[in-house]
Amino acid sequence: MPKIFEYLGILIFFYSNEHEPIHVHAKKGEFESRAAFYIANGVISEIKVTEVKGSKPIIGNDLKDFELFLENYADKIVEKWINYFVYHRNVEFEKITKRLK
User: Fold this and answer.
1) Is residue 51 within 8 Å of 66, Cβ to Cβ?
2) Which among 19, 49, 56, 70 is most buried, taking Cβ atoms within 10 Å?
3) What pTM was estimated for this model as a whole?
């Protein structure tokens, strides 16, 4: 389970046996959600946050923080996904401690 980011206590990671579409999981405490990235012509056209079966979804301010993080770091997330699953490279963990605007 490669952990790729932590933002304000929200852990963003991949499971090692992931599948397309490109997506990440976010977990804070007992809550977990998934964000899928849809790409058209090499550009992220949409990001959808959904529930993870068997888990309570991230809600409230934590969900807003996660969505803001996705807006700011979408390209880096996709890059890390491709590096890990396509090129089989290790990916660096980054901890973001300042609130994004």
Assistant:
1) no
2) 70
3) 0.91
